[in-house]
Specification:
The complex is a heterodimer of chains A (61) and B (138). Chain A contains two helices and no strands. The mean pLDDT of chain A is 92. Chain B is 64% helix and 0% strand. Classes of the chains: A mainly alpha (61), B mainly alpha (138). Chains A and B meet through helix 1 of A and helix 3 and helix 6 of B.
Chain lengths: 61, 138
C-alpha cells in the first residue's frame, strides 16, 4: 500500500469533498437538490476550514 | 403554535429492507445497486471506498473497543463501531493484516479520522437504502 502524505489543508479538502458527495446523495430527493446541497455542504466545509484556521492563527498570537 | 406530531410510520416487513441494508453495509452503495439506483450507488461506492483507501494510505489506526473511563470507552468503542460500518473494506484490511499502531503526526491522525468517517458515511448510505426499500423515499 503506497504511503500518502498530505498537508492539513489538502487532507481537510479531501475530507470535505467525500463527505459533501455522500451528504448530497443521502439527504435530498431530486438530483438537482442533491447537487446543490452537495456543493453547499462543500462550500460550508471550506469556509469553516479557512475561518477556523485564521481563528487559530490569531489565537496563537 | 405547537407543531403537530407526525404519525409514526409502521415498520415495513423485514424481507423488504433487510437485503438492501445488509448489502449496503457489506459493500458501500450495494443497497442502492440492489434497489436499481445505480448512479447514486456508484457515487457512494467511489466516495466511501476512496475515503477508506486514503485513510489506509495515510496509515490511520483502527480502533479496538476498550473500557476504562467514560471518554476512553466512548472514543474507542465509538471509533470501533465507525470502523466496522465500512463493511467489506474493514474486514478485508483486517484479514489482510493491516495493523497500524496509533502514532503521533497529523497525517496519521487524519488517516484515523478518514477510516472512521468512511464507515459513518456508509452508515448514512445504509439508512438511505433502508428508506428507499421501505418506500419512504424515491
Amino acid at each position: 500500500m503506497p504511503n500518502m502524505t498530505l498537508s492539513h489543508f489538502e487532507a481537510a479538502i479531501l475530507f470535505s469533498l467525500f463527505t459533501a458527495v455522500v451528504l448530497g446523495i443521502v439527504t435530498k430527493r431530486s438530483d438537482r437538490e442533491r447537487l446543490q446541497y452537495g456543493i453547499y455542504t462543500f462550500v460550508c466545509f471550506v469556509v469553516a476550514l479557512v475561518g477556523i484556521g485564521w481563528l487559530m492563527y490569531f489565537g496563537h498570537g | 403554535m405547537a407543531k403537530e406530531k407526525e404519525p409514526k410510520q409502521p415498520m415495513p416487513p423485514f424481507g423488504a429492507w433487510a437485503p438492501a441494508v445488509a448489502l449496503g453495509w457489506l459493500i458501500p452503495g450495494g443497497g442502492h445497486f440492489l434497489l436499481k439506483r445505480t448512479g447514486r450507488g456508484m457515487l457512494l461506492l467511489v466516495s466511501v471506498t476512496s475515503m477508506f483507501l486514503c485513510g489506509l494510505m495515510m496509515r490511520g489506526a483502527m480502533f479496538q473497543p476498550q473500557t476504562g473511563d467514560l471518554l476512553t470507552t466512548l472514543i474507542n468503542t465509538g471509533g470501533f463501531i465507525g470502523d466496522i460500518c465500512s463493511g467489506i473494506l474493514y474486514l478485508l484490511s483486517v484479514w489482510l493484516g493491516y495493523n497500524q499502531p496509533d502514532v503521533a503526526g497529523h497525517v496519521h491522525d487524519y488517516g484515523t479520522k478518514f477510516l472512521v468517517t468512511a464507515g459513518l458515511l456508509n452508515l448514512l448510505a445504509v439508512v438511505d437504502a433502508f428508506e428507499i426499500a421501505a418506500g419512504r423515499k424515491d
